[in-house]
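User: Let's play a game. I give you a shape written as tokens, and you guess the letters that built it. Ready? Here's round one.
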């Protein structure tokens, strides 16, 4: 990475990369003190998917070199694209991000579970450093105190220690804030690096695609209103929004039967509508006579909740790849039909779930594990472990830290202390928090981890704003 060549974002360079390493080591303190990383039920799926992706890549490369691939075989089961169609139990696979799965598996093989959380936290921290201006750097003690507060009283260290792509949703929001604020004044290499990291964050989860599409549009609009919208900013936004779906289309075309912007996705939206009511009511009337894959599979026994539809033995868990493909193909048509039949109920449930998600903050859905073996089986800790004690102790602290940070930002705003650049950052972060709640809580399910992974951005803004508000005028940098 070349050295910094501009004063707009002095920490996007070698110095910032090294500082991000140090800060990452501090922020994942729950790993060091508790002796465990935090996992979710989907953690193993990402790692298994990464293993299948790398095995498939090996098979594809081997097919280009027949003389070197006489051994054939693979993992003693399905080979090539087959590993991405069915799992070791012969069940239909469900999709995870190609890029995150592949990167997480590579990091896991290189350094274990801690290497995965360290790498994704470094990306997020490095992008956050892109918002620290020369003016803020004149108040290093404010920044240092702010880092301590973020590390103790917010959700950041818990998601930094989480072996899931959740934290990278915050990286998507940070990238959008950079587009609206400091991006125009960065050097060429800085712009390239920030764009690459932002695009990777977008690819890390299928839900990040709509989040980025809407949020980048907000960021570009804010930049245009501030007369800071240049061609490079437009190109960077386009790369982050259009690049990931094009990547997924290419990858799925190469190794799967059907090209898709969200390969092998779970029908989460349909599951949410089933639990909220509209899709369930519509299908109870339509099945079993309607010519739908859903009706062929479930008949008149329409699942009543997300768990029964996605995870139970009578749900999609044991359907064939062909049946799962048909369900995916008809999902959006079903949702549209359900909406037309019950527009008020569907809209009310969406808004209610999104509103609840906005304020749902804590360390729930995170399970400490002292290790993950070669088959991706976690060694979960007991209820009396140090990791769980730390988690319980801080679960009641992090909401307070979040709302205190939000109150500081609000106080600075209503007293007229914010600059144009600070208002731009606040508008984009606020839009990101609301969009995150709507997309992940409203369309999927309101759970603590969805909003907690981005809620720490409000205290982060409080730290930045306080550092700039109390800056030393003699060393003030460009706005």
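Assistant: Ready! My guess for every position:
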């Amino acid at each position: 990475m070349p050295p910094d060549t501009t004063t707009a974002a002095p920490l996007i360079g070698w110095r910032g990369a090294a500082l991000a390493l140090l800060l990452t080591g501090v922020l994942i303190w729950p790993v060091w003190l508790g002796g465990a990383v935090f996992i979710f039920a989907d953690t193993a799926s990402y790692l298994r998917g990464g293993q299948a992706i790398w095995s498939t890549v090996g098979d594809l490369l081997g097919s280009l070199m027949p003389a070197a691939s006489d051994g054939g075989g693979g993992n003693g089961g399905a080979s090539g694209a087959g590993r991405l169609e069915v799992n070791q139990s012969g069940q239909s696979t469900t999709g995870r991000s190609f890029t995150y799965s592949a990167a997480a598996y590579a990091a896991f093989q290189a350094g274990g579970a801690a290497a995965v959380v360290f790498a994704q936290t470094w990306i997020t921290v490095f992008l956050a450093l892109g918002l620290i201006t020369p003016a803020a750097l004149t108040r290093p003690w404010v920044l240092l105190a702010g880092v301590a507060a973020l590390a103790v009283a917010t959700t950041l260290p818990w998601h930094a220690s989480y072996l899931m792509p959740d934290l990278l949703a915050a990286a998507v929001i940070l990238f959008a804030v950079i587009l609206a604020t400091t991006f125009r004044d960065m050097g060429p290499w800085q712009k390239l690096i920030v764009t690459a990291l932002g695009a990777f964050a977008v690819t890390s989860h299928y839900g990040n695609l709509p989040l980025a599409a809407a949020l980048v549009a907000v960021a570009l609009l804010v930049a245009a209103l501030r007369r800071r919208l240049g061609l490079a900013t437009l190109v960077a936004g386009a790369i982050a929004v259009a690049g990931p779906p094009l990547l997924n289309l290419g990858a799925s075309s190469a190794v799967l039967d059907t090209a898709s912007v969200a390969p092998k996705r779970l029908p989460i939206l349909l599951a949410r509508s089933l639990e909220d009511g509209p899709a369930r009511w519509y299908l109870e009337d339509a099945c079993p006579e309607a010519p739908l894959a859903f009706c062929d599979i479930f008949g008149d026994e329409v699942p009543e909740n997300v768990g029964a539809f996605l995870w139970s033995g009578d749900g999609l868990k044991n359907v064939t790849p062909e049946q799962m493909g048909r369900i995916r193909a008809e999902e959006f048509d079903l949702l549209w039909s359900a909406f037309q039949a019950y527009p008020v109920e569907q809209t009310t449930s969406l808004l209610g779930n999104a509103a609840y998600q906005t304020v749902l903050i804590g360390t729930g859905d995170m399970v400490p594990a002292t290790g993950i073996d070669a088959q991706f089986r976690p060694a979960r800790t007991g209820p009396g472990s140090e990791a769980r004690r730390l988690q319980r102790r801080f679960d009641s602290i992090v909401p307070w830290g979040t709302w205190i940070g939000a109150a500081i930002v609000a106080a600075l705003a209503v007293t007229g202390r914010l600059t144009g650049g600070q208002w731009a950052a606040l508008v984009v972060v606020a839009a990101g928090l609301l969009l995150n709640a709507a997309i992940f809580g409203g369309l999927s399910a309101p759970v603590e981890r969805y909003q907690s992974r981005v809620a720490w951005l409000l205290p982060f803004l409080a730290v930045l704003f306080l550092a700039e508000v109390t800056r030393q005028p003699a060393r003030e940098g460009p706005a």
